[in-house]
Amino acid sequence: MDTTRLRLPGHDVLEHTLTVPLDHATHGGERIEVFAREIVRDGGADRPHLLYLQGGPGGRADRPARITGWVDRALDDFRVVLLDQRGTGRSTPADALTVPARGDAAAQADYLAHFRADAIVADAEALRAELTDGRPWSALGQSYGGFVLTTYLSRAPHGLLEVLVTGGLPGLTAGAEDVYRLTYARTAARNAEYFARYPADERALRDVARHLGGTEERLPTGEVLSARRLRQIGIRLGADLGFHALHHVLEAPFVSVGGTRRLARTFLADTGALLSHATNPLYAVLHEPIYAQGSATRWAAHRLREEWDGFAEDADPADTSRPYHLTGEHVYPWQLREDPALAPLADAADLLAAKADFPALYDPEVLATNEVPVAAAVYVDDMFVPLELSRATAAAVRGVRPWVTNEYHHDGIRSDGERILDRLLTLARR
């Protein structure tokens, strides 16, 4: 393992690069790099390690420019390890440039099949062996990071001293259809709450959608903004401050140019920033495969959206007698062809959606006899990780101590991370 030492005020920063197998089940095969940034507070060199796994899939680890929030609290007790999960950040990248270079869509899909939670756990175990001299470490997982830690508890519990989860207890046997049926219902409720607070925003959304039906408008990336793409800004509905963020996007979408109404450049730039997956293409490509356990997902979110009034792809924004909903954490096959950052991966994503032999990620029998202390923040109003599934998992995994709260939405760790982490540590060690 190669390590570089840097400094932040009051802290050492150790940047680690480790070579691991692409397929941990195959010895002597292709190898890739994984990167982790370790932060050590001055005077804290003897503290134990805390591994942090961020949400996603496909998101790189946090890059703190200064130490605040949950990281600041964690450094009171730990050396904090921020892992760039394989394919992200400074780990060997898996994106629209590198993956197509591997060959045809089948070769690309075969490669990307090695980027799920089971492989991330094996990477973490390889890193732990280098950093802790074999001692188990504590781990904190936000959202998808909690999914990965549930796999960790299933496959390598000996590597874990304690587990802390925020908004990320997955359904142990739930497939993609089970998840999306619940998240569509919650997204519909969040739409109703949002438009009740900002009724002018619903009128603006419908107005923009009608405009896009007859006028070509392009995002700063050059892609045409379609009405169906526009509705995907609804992913922000699941955030603590998401209503306000969306209101600031929709408050003044139009300008007049020579008497012709066009979408404002600022509106297009703000919308494009919410829609683009240039920085996290694996999120879209792997979003459904993270739920695949022995059966194909077959683009479940796309197939199921017609079951709810307001989510139909061809819903008429001019028909005010029917709801016209923003969508949430749902990925659609056409999306990968409309987003330039995803288009080179679209055919491979189709093959992953058809792949029926992904192995199970969680072992209910192992989890039923779990001996690792687990504390989990479960958010009542979570739009992305359904409360019903999280509660069932908390009951099925031995030793889980849930904190069920309506104080936060899915990204609570961003808005009040210090308090949340402190509460989880107290709960885990009670």
TrEMBL record:
Domain of life of the native organism: Bacteria
BP term (GO), one: proteolysis
InterPro entries for this protein: AB_hydrolase_1, AB_hydrolase_fold, Peptidase_S33, Serine_prot/Carboxylest_S33
Sequence ranges assigned to domain AB hydrolase-1 in this UniProt record: 48-198
One example GO MF annotation: aminopeptidase activity
Keyword terms: Hydrolase
Family note: Belongs to the peptidase S33 family.
UniProt name for this protein: Alpha/beta hydrolase family protein
Organism: Georgenia muralis
Taxonomic path: Bacteria, Bacillati, Actinomycetota, Actinomycetes, Micrococcales
